[in-house]
Specification:
Distance between the termini of chain A: 37 Å
Shape of chain A: globular
Strand content of chain A: over 45%
Order of helices and strands of chain B: EEEEEEEEEEE
Structural class of chain A: mainly beta
Helix content of chain B: under 10%
Number of helices of chain B: 0
Radius of gyration of chain A: 13 Å
Oligomer: heterodimer
Chain lengths: 115, 113
Protein backbone atom coordinates (compact mmCIF):
# COMPACT_ATOMS: atom_id res chain seq x y z
CA UNK A 1 0.00 0.00 0.00
CA UNK A 2 1.46 3.39 -0.95
CA UNK A 3 2.43 5.64 1.92
CA UNK A 4 3.90 9.02 2.66
CA UNK A 5 7.43 8.88 4.01
CA UNK A 6 9.37 11.52 5.91
CA UNK A 7 13.01 11.96 6.80
CA UNK A 8 14.59 12.32 9.22
CA UNK A 9 12.41 10.91 11.96
CA UNK A 10 14.13 13.14 14.50
CA UNK A 11 16.16 16.30 13.92
CA UNK A 12 18.01 18.16 16.63
CA UNK A 13 19.34 21.59 15.80
CA UNK A 14 20.69 24.71 17.43
CA UNK A 15 18.62 27.87 17.52
CA UNK A 16 19.29 30.01 14.47
CA UNK A 17 20.26 27.10 12.25
CA UNK A 18 18.49 26.16 9.04
CA UNK A 19 16.70 22.83 8.77
CA UNK A 20 15.16 21.03 5.84
CA UNK A 21 12.51 18.43 6.46
CA UNK A 22 11.87 16.03 3.65
CA UNK A 23 8.79 14.19 2.50
CA UNK A 24 8.00 11.80 -0.30
CA UNK A 25 4.25 12.02 -0.99
CA UNK A 26 2.24 9.25 -2.61
CA UNK A 27 3.28 9.20 -6.24
CA UNK A 28 0.02 10.01 -8.02
CA UNK A 29 -1.07 12.68 -5.55
CA UNK A 30 -1.26 16.30 -6.59
CA UNK A 31 -1.80 18.20 -3.35
CA UNK A 32 0.76 18.44 -0.61
CA UNK A 33 0.57 19.80 2.89
CA UNK A 34 2.65 20.48 5.96
CA UNK A 35 1.20 20.48 9.44
CA UNK A 36 2.83 20.73 12.82
CA UNK A 37 1.95 19.58 16.29
CA UNK A 38 3.58 21.14 19.31
CA UNK A 39 3.80 18.63 22.14
CA UNK A 40 0.44 18.23 23.84
CA UNK A 41 -1.36 20.54 21.44
CA UNK A 42 -3.50 20.06 18.39
CA UNK A 43 -2.31 19.61 14.85
CA UNK A 44 -2.00 22.94 13.02
CA UNK A 45 -2.05 23.59 9.30
CA UNK A 46 1.04 25.30 7.89
CA UNK A 47 0.80 25.28 4.12
CA UNK A 48 -0.73 23.59 1.10
CA UNK A 49 0.97 23.25 -2.25
CA UNK A 50 -0.41 22.48 -5.68
CA UNK A 51 0.87 22.83 -9.20
CA UNK A 52 4.26 23.99 -7.97
CA UNK A 53 2.99 26.85 -5.92
CA UNK A 54 1.58 27.57 -2.49
CA UNK A 55 -2.20 27.49 -2.59
CA UNK A 56 -2.80 28.45 1.02
CA UNK A 57 -0.73 29.19 4.10
CA UNK A 58 -1.43 29.90 7.73
CA UNK A 59 -0.19 32.82 9.79
CA UNK A 60 2.36 30.45 11.31
CA UNK A 61 3.99 30.08 7.90
CA UNK A 62 5.99 33.31 7.93
CA UNK A 63 9.07 34.36 5.96
CA UNK A 64 11.21 31.90 7.89
CA UNK A 65 9.39 29.01 6.23
CA UNK A 66 9.49 27.87 2.64
CA UNK A 67 8.43 24.81 0.71
CA UNK A 68 9.74 23.30 -2.45
CA UNK A 69 9.15 20.38 -4.74
CA UNK A 70 12.68 20.09 -6.14
CA UNK A 71 11.95 17.04 -8.28
CA UNK A 72 9.06 14.78 -9.14
CA UNK A 73 9.03 12.98 -5.85
CA UNK A 74 10.26 15.08 -2.93
CA UNK A 75 8.45 17.83 -1.06
CA UNK A 76 10.51 19.82 1.44
CA UNK A 77 9.89 22.25 4.25
CA UNK A 78 12.72 24.62 5.08
CA UNK A 79 12.95 26.66 8.24
CA UNK A 80 15.55 29.33 7.63
CA UNK A 81 16.51 30.31 11.17
CA UNK A 82 15.00 28.04 13.77
CA UNK A 83 13.58 29.30 17.04
CA UNK A 84 12.92 27.41 20.24
CA UNK A 85 9.19 27.60 19.56
CA UNK A 86 9.65 25.73 16.27
CA UNK A 87 10.18 22.55 18.28
CA UNK A 88 7.31 20.28 17.25
CA UNK A 89 6.32 17.25 15.21
CA UNK A 90 6.05 18.17 11.56
CA UNK A 91 3.74 16.10 9.42
CA UNK A 92 3.63 15.97 5.67
CA UNK A 93 0.41 14.91 3.94
CA UNK A 94 -0.76 14.40 0.40
CA UNK A 95 -4.05 13.91 -1.39
CA UNK A 96 -5.17 13.23 -4.92
CA UNK A 97 -7.80 15.85 -5.70
CA UNK A 98 -9.84 18.23 -3.55
CA UNK A 99 -13.00 17.50 -5.44
CA UNK A 100 -15.87 17.27 -3.05
CA UNK A 101 -13.66 16.27 -0.21
CA UNK A 102 -10.62 14.13 0.10
CA UNK A 103 -8.67 12.01 2.47
CA UNK A 104 -5.23 13.26 3.29
CA UNK A 105 -2.56 10.65 3.85
CA UNK A 106 -0.09 11.57 6.55
CA UNK A 107 3.51 10.62 6.97
CA UNK A 108 4.91 9.42 10.31
CA UNK A 109 6.30 12.86 11.11
CA UNK A 110 9.65 14.45 11.87
CA UNK A 111 10.28 15.46 15.45
CA UNK A 112 12.20 18.74 15.41
CA UNK A 113 13.98 19.73 18.58
CA UNK A 114 15.51 23.22 18.68
CA UNK A 115 18.04 23.77 21.46
CA UNK B 1 -14.47 27.71 21.47
CA UNK B 2 -12.14 26.98 18.61
CA UNK B 3 -12.99 25.28 15.32
CA UNK B 4 -13.07 21.57 16.06
CA UNK B 5 -13.40 21.06 19.77
CA UNK B 6 -13.77 17.51 20.97
CA UNK B 7 -15.24 16.28 24.15
CA UNK B 8 -14.48 14.60 26.32
CA UNK B 9 -10.79 15.48 26.42
CA UNK B 10 -10.10 12.06 27.92
CA UNK B 11 -12.14 8.90 28.06
CA UNK B 12 -11.35 5.66 29.84
CA UNK B 13 -13.47 2.58 29.24
CA UNK B 14 -13.32 -1.18 29.56
CA UNK B 15 -12.72 -3.43 26.60
CA UNK B 16 -16.00 -4.36 24.96
CA UNK B 17 -17.71 -1.10 25.85
CA UNK B 18 -18.66 1.55 23.32
CA UNK B 19 -16.79 4.83 23.14
CA UNK B 20 -18.44 8.03 21.99
CA UNK B 21 -16.53 11.18 21.15
CA UNK B 22 -18.06 14.47 20.13
CA UNK B 23 -16.80 17.31 18.01
CA UNK B 24 -18.16 20.80 17.54
CA UNK B 25 -17.09 23.33 14.95
CA UNK B 26 -17.91 26.91 14.08
CA UNK B 27 -17.74 27.58 10.35
CA UNK B 28 -19.55 25.96 7.41
CA UNK B 29 -17.79 22.90 6.10
CA UNK B 30 -17.45 20.76 3.02
CA UNK B 31 -16.74 17.61 4.97
CA UNK B 32 -15.58 16.41 8.35
CA UNK B 33 -13.01 13.72 8.94
CA UNK B 34 -11.90 11.70 11.91
CA UNK B 35 -8.28 10.73 12.44
CA UNK B 36 -6.53 8.54 14.96
CA UNK B 37 -3.08 9.12 16.39
CA UNK B 38 -1.19 6.59 18.43
CA UNK B 39 1.19 8.14 20.92
CA UNK B 40 4.05 9.90 19.14
CA UNK B 41 3.00 8.60 15.74
CA UNK B 42 1.40 9.93 12.58
CA UNK B 43 -2.25 10.46 11.86
CA UNK B 44 -4.37 7.72 10.38
CA UNK B 45 -7.53 8.59 8.49
CA UNK B 46 -10.58 6.78 9.83
CA UNK B 47 -13.65 8.08 8.10
CA UNK B 48 -14.97 11.05 6.12
CA UNK B 49 -18.51 12.36 6.19
CA UNK B 50 -19.69 14.96 3.71
CA UNK B 51 -21.82 17.93 4.65
CA UNK B 52 -24.88 16.43 2.92
CA UNK B 53 -24.59 13.17 4.84
CA UNK B 54 -26.00 12.54 8.28
CA UNK B 55 -24.54 9.18 9.21
CA UNK B 56 -21.82 6.89 7.99
CA UNK B 57 -20.51 3.49 9.05
CA UNK B 58 -17.20 1.79 8.61
CA UNK B 59 -16.65 -1.47 10.45
CA UNK B 60 -16.95 -0.71 14.18
CA UNK B 61 -17.08 3.03 13.52
CA UNK B 62 -20.20 5.11 13.24
CA UNK B 63 -20.05 8.81 12.52
CA UNK B 64 -22.91 11.26 12.63
CA UNK B 65 -23.01 14.84 11.42
CA UNK B 66 -25.51 17.51 12.38
CA UNK B 67 -24.76 20.61 10.33
CA UNK B 68 -27.53 22.59 12.01
CA UNK B 69 -25.78 22.12 15.35
CA UNK B 70 -22.32 22.13 13.80
CA UNK B 71 -21.44 18.93 15.57
CA UNK B 72 -20.31 15.40 14.87
CA UNK B 73 -19.90 12.27 16.90
CA UNK B 74 -17.69 9.23 16.52
CA UNK B 75 -18.85 5.97 18.03
CA UNK B 76 -16.51 3.03 18.37
CA UNK B 77 -18.43 -0.12 19.21
CA UNK B 78 -17.07 -3.11 21.07
CA UNK B 79 -13.82 -1.33 21.86
CA UNK B 80 -10.50 -3.15 22.06
CA UNK B 81 -7.29 -2.34 23.87
CA UNK B 82 -5.75 -1.60 20.45
CA UNK B 83 -8.21 1.28 20.05
CA UNK B 84 -6.27 3.19 22.71
CA UNK B 85 -5.17 6.38 20.95
CA UNK B 86 -6.03 10.03 20.47
CA UNK B 87 -8.91 10.79 18.15
CA UNK B 88 -9.22 14.05 16.27
CA UNK B 89 -11.95 15.52 14.17
CA UNK B 90 -10.87 17.72 11.30
CA UNK B 91 -13.05 19.98 9.24
CA UNK B 92 -12.55 20.86 5.60
CA UNK B 93 -13.82 23.98 3.91
CA UNK B 94 -13.27 23.74 0.21
CA UNK B 95 -11.01 26.56 -0.97
CA UNK B 96 -10.30 25.32 -4.46
CA UNK B 97 -6.59 25.20 -3.93
CA UNK B 98 -6.47 22.09 -1.80
CA UNK B 99 -8.41 21.45 1.33
CA UNK B 100 -6.65 22.29 4.51
CA UNK B 101 -7.68 20.31 7.54
CA UNK B 102 -8.56 22.23 10.68
CA UNK B 103 -8.07 19.87 13.58
CA UNK B 104 -9.80 19.77 16.91
CA UNK B 105 -8.16 19.40 20.25
CA UNK B 106 -8.63 15.65 20.36
CA UNK B 107 -9.99 13.01 22.72
CA UNK B 108 -7.56 10.66 24.42
CA UNK B 109 -9.19 7.26 24.56
CA UNK B 110 -7.89 4.56 26.85
CA UNK B 111 -9.37 1.10 26.59
CA UNK B 112 -8.49 -1.11 29.52
CA UNK B 113 -8.52 -4.87 29.62
Amino acid sequence: EPEVTQTPSHQVTQMGQEVILRCVPISNHLYFYWYRQILGQKVEFLVSFYNNEISEKSEIFDDQFSVERPDGSNFTLKIRSTKLEDSAMYFCASSDTPGTGNEQFFGPGTRLTVL
Amino acid sequence: SQQGEEDPQALSIQEGENATMNCSYKTSINNLQWYRQNSGRGLVHLILIRSNEREKHSGRLRVTLDTSKKSSSLLITASRAADTASYFCATVSFTGGGNKLTFGTGTQLKVEL
